[in-house]
Write a structure and sequence with these properties.
mainly alpha, two-stranded antiparallel ribbon, 15 helices
Length: 340
């Protein structure tokens, strides 16, 4: 199959980054520093630093192109999504105390917490400004306003999910499996669903199609997070870009929560003892992983990731408007980031 340039992922990626650079260009000689920090965090500082997969904007552009046949008019929306996602990452790094992202020092470790918070706030503001160019491209005001409302509601969901995550991390108790799905729905699925819904919303007024695309994005977002949970414990570093150390760092991801709910009394008690260790040894980490596997937590998480991945593709097909090339590219992204 001949691949249209509008569906070539490298073209979409380059165009998205060009649009982002247009938005984060220096605006005032006296405030150049904040834009330099933004470009550093995004990996767009000219150092050939790691940039991330840009999965969310790519999905949005492909959603738009799968209906409209081209992607360029949706680029401001894609830039807004990526800038908004990265505002949350800058703040997450501070809240989680992470000193490295994509093999480089995090922003707050270089410039301090106050400047990093301000840079995150600037990214949020610029993500809103990016959306205004849709008006310049001729989209109706009603469409732009609807997209802004979607964006605002999604940012609120992100903050709500982060609240649950921080509260969970601060507590010795584990939340339920159901509550965990609620949290990742807000933290992860909401933004991916909004990215894809935005692409559809810009391309069509058919509400049934828009709803199907959103459902596709929601299921995909859940699958993405569950796959990440697997990789955080069992994934090779070459796949994740980071050491699989969720157990060492006491992260309360689905495998741990599921094991705590379903383990027998002896395993549940031992798991609690091991997780209470401030600095678990290699042997203790191995024992925790053995308990997770023995209770079926690994298999359950993998099955759920596959379930939501397959549900995502079913929702995409049910939309009934996807061109074969576009579906192939969407599936290419799904397979590349969800390998459960």
């Amino acid at each position: 199959m001949t691949v249209s340039s509008d569906l070539d992922l490298s073209v979409l990626l380059a165009d998205t980054e060009a649009e982002i650079l247009r938005v984060v260009a220096d605006r005032d000689p006296s405030t150049i520093g904040v834009y330099e920090m933004i470009r550093y965090h995004l990996g767009l500082d000219g150092s050939e630093g790691p940039r991330g997969k840009r999965m969310r904007p790519l999905l949005g552009l492909l959603a738009y192109a799968s209906i409209a046949g081209e992607h360029s008019r949706a680029l401001p929306g894609a830039a807004a999504v990526e800038l908004g996602h990265n505002f949350s990452l800058v703040h997450d790094d501070i809240e989680d105390g992470d000193v490295e992202r994509r093999h480089r020092p995090t922003l707050w470790t270089i410039h301090g917490i106050p400047q990093a918070i301000n840079t995150g706030d600037t990214l949020f503001s610029l993500s809103r400004i990016a959306l205004h160019r849709l008006t310049d491209l001729g989209f109706p005001d009603s469409t732009v306003l609807r997209l802004m409302r979607l964006y605002d509601e999604t940012c609120l969901a992100l903050c709500e999910g982060q609240y649950i995550d921080i509260a969970m991390s601060a507590s010795d108790e584990l939340i339920s499996v159901d509550r965990y799905f609620d949290m990742i729905g807000r933290k992860t699925a909401a933004l991916i669903a909004a990215s894809i819904e935005a692409g559809a919303l810009l391309a069509t007024t058919d509400e049934q199609v828009i709803a199907r695309y959103r459902a596709f994005g929601w299921a995909l977002g859940l699958a993405f997070q569950l796959n990440d949970d697997l990789l955080g414990i069992w994934g090779p570093e070459r796949t994740t870009g980071k050491e699989p150390s969720d157990v060492v760092h006491h992260k309360k991801t689905l495998p741990v929560i599921y094991a705590a709910e379903h383990a027998g009394p002896e395993d549940r008690e031992r798991l609690a003892e091991l997780r209470a260790a401030t600095d678990p040894t290699t042997a203790e980490v191995a024992e925790i992983i053995e308990i997770l596997e023995r209770t079926g937590a690994r298999e359950y998480t993998r099955d759920q990731a596959r379930h939501y991945r397959d549900q995502a593709l079913a929702e995409l097909d049910a939309a009934g408007v996807v061109k074969p090339e576009a579906r192939a590219r969407l599936e290419q992204i799904i397979v590349s980031v969800i390998d459960a």
